[in-house]
Amino acid sequence: MRISRRVALKLALALALVAVVLTPPAAHAGPGHDHGEEAAAQANAMPRVVADSDLFELVGILGEGGTLTIYLDRTATNEPVDGAEIEVMLGDAQAKAERIGPAVYRVRLPALAKPGHFDLTFSLTAGTDSDLLAGSFEVPAPPEEGAVRHGWLDALTEAPLLWVGGVGLFVAGLLLGYVARPRTLPPMVETDPIPAPSAAIPPRVGAGEPTPIRRVAAPTAVALLTLLAVSPAWSQPAPAPEPPRRLPDGAVFVPKPTQRLLEVRTQRAELGRADTAIQLVGTIVPDPNASGRVQASQAGRLEPGEGGLPVLGQRVERGQVLAYVTPAYSISERGTLQQSIAELDQQIGIAEARANRLAGLRGSVSDREIQEARQELAGLRQRRAAVAPSLSGREPLIAPVSGVVSTVRGAIGGIVDNQQPVFEIVDPTRLWVEALAFDRTAQGTVSGASVLLPDGRTAPLELVGRGLSVRQGAVPLNFRLPSPPEGISVGTPVTVLLRLPRPQEGIVLPADAVVRSAEGPPVVYAHAAPERFVPLQVRAEPIDGARVLVTAGVEPGTRVVTRAAGMIAQVR
């Protein structure tokens, strides 16, 4: 049975319309049933059980099939506890958790796969510490099967792009079927009559005549594409993992897996006393007794020494020849020097002849005249010896101290000025810090000092002395670095912390615990719950480069984040 082209197109259109009508739209909650905002505000997107004590803090996240993933940490420090033995009891059922990763355990309780309220008991043993924790949580019931459906006009309003795509695919399929339609070939002239087909041999289809499968292939593809385009399965979002997020009350929800990645650590706040500090702006400078500059006494052309010019970072010893400087003269200056040498040579010749003549007349002349002639000759020779190097000699540049070459100004063949140093030598083991004190309190008695480097490292300082002259409205202070850190360079800007003998009461915390909030004031994050961190505005004063003294805003006993506080503050 053959199907005509018009019938095939009608069949494709009918299939497409049936696909559109029979395909259900995406289910949407009706008025009063939309809980999207409420779900977004919830801290825990997945069912979990929380239990803690003075020793341990436990969080169990429920997965599929009643699988409970357990994260075990120390309560005081939030440090993961690895290698612990955990037994979970639910009523009469009891199961032992297995370790699946560093400080991560898993246990399967089939009863947790059903909705309801569950009370769990955890028996923990970690080294010499053991504890018994209890926790409960609610497993919600699955969503109802029947969801309120909107009409097609509402669905079209809420998802117009989906419908436009489906209609576009449908039209494209129709155009494709129209372009691929069979075309009738013109009749061929034949002289012989065509014999009637035999009943035993089925008639063959001509080259220009479509087969039944070819007639319905394109319309069927159009119907299937339309069915896929309007299918709601393409518009269903995939479940996303739990990300850290800031809650409406300002607290930050950080899941336990994220805490492990950030290595969040805490400590309990305890009252103490410490000397407050004042911050000064300083700079790393070389020790004047262990550094030096090498410069020429006159302008000239730079020439290398026996080992070539020294390079940056090269170790040199005191008295070592670093380079040579050949005096550079203009044509007129060189002519004047040559004239002076020629005159000296002439005078030396005359004086030498006179001294020889007087020596030959010894006895006729006094010895005094002979001695004066010889002294005059020696003086002329010394004058020539002093002038001759200025024309053809060169000046050696000698290292004044032992150390490392920190600056090289010049190249082979270049002209150097006598006012500019060619090399600077610094001993990296003997460095100072120079700071400017604008505050009068910093000019008083100092109980201690330290330096804070740009990379966060700290080092102690020893006060060398104060300047009596005011520089830029401040008094200069010099400090010695007893043990300079590695990799430090001269000229590096640093922060100098002066500890004053004024002890105050407060809570001593690491400097990394205090961060700037989005509003500007300094805050610390309190570990209020296993996965909840609350920002607290504080008033803090520096103690040294690694510690601060919190004088207000934190109560004793509060668990304060000491590591990764800056990462928590960036959660939005």
From TrEMBL:
<dbReference type="InterPro" id="IPR006311">
    <property type="entry name" value="TAT_signal"/>
</dbReference>
<keyword id="KW-0813">Transport</keyword>
<dbReference type="InterPro" id="IPR051909">
    <property type="entry name" value="MFP_Cation_Efflux"/>
</dbReference>
<dbReference type="GO" id="GO:0015679">
    <property type="term" value="P:plasma membrane copper ion transport"/>
</dbReference>
<dbReference type="GO" id="GO:0030313">
    <property type="term" value="C:cell envelope"/>
</dbReference>
<dbReference type="GO" id="GO:0060003">
    <property type="term" value="P:copper ion export"/>
</dbReference>
<keyword id="KW-0732">Signal</keyword>
<feature type="signal peptide">
    <location>
        <begin position="1"/>
        <end position="29"/>
    </location>
</feature>
<protein>
    <submittedName>
        <fullName>HlyD family efflux transporter periplasmic adaptor subunit</fullName>
    </submittedName>
</protein>
